[in-house]
Amino acid sequence: MSTRRDDVMAALRDWSKPGRRADLLAEAWQAGETNVSALAEAARISRPTVYADLRSRGIDPDHRPKGNSVITNLSPLDIEGFTGVGERMDAEFDAALRRWAAEHPTATQEEGQAEGMRLVGLMDTTARYADVRDRLAHEQVARAERDRLLHQVELRWEALSTATAWLAAHHAYVLAVDEARIAIDMWRERAETALRRPFFCSSPRDEAAYRQIQEAGHPALEPALADLDRTPAQTAEQLRVTLDQAHERRMGLAAQTLRVAQPAQ
Known about the structure:
Elements: H1 4-13, H2 20-30, H3 36-43, H4 47-56, H5 89-103, H6 109-159, H7 166-195, H8 204-215, H9 222-227, H10 232-261
Helix pairs in contact: 1-2, 1-3, 2-4, 3-4, 5-6, 6-7, 6-8, 7-10
């Protein structure tokens, strides 16, 4: 099923009218495509041109919009004593069942069994929630750092045009490229880790436990799961290729500048 983001990116790839490109870039950005490399590839322009077009439409590329998929609440879990920590689960279950028994001294065996099953569902859902939430949070942090460092590469390159200490500025650019490569790989690893642990509710008992977790102030996972890149290896490869191709071209330009700057022998 095509999404608005997919539609505007397709339109961007087919732009032709003068002045239309900046409008399409702005629309793609507002639809959620804030990857400058992807925008540049779609429009067949350079990254600096993407920045210029976005700014011409009143968009600051340094302040990327945050949707409701951001995992902001990483406070410790405590759902009826369940923390989601694997090695504590058995002890937490026993403690929860003892508390219930103390509060219901006249309960029947059937009622005790029903409560035990409810606590099992709550324990299991809390543990799975904690695991998936942490994986998603790590992916989002790594993704933000990846995008920040890719943007830093562009800033370092642009700074060379006016740098007085040119060699130092060029070294800073080279270091930025290396850091961006590392960040891409780290993000891919975090994204692949997140994809390996799906979250779902398979019974009304699980759904009730999930609602209880959210009512305690912890975020829903569906928005972040929907926003998760399903092909992190492919995306990482595309980002690396784009980065390396631009870097190779820039090294050629920098070599020309360096030859001119060197005194004649």
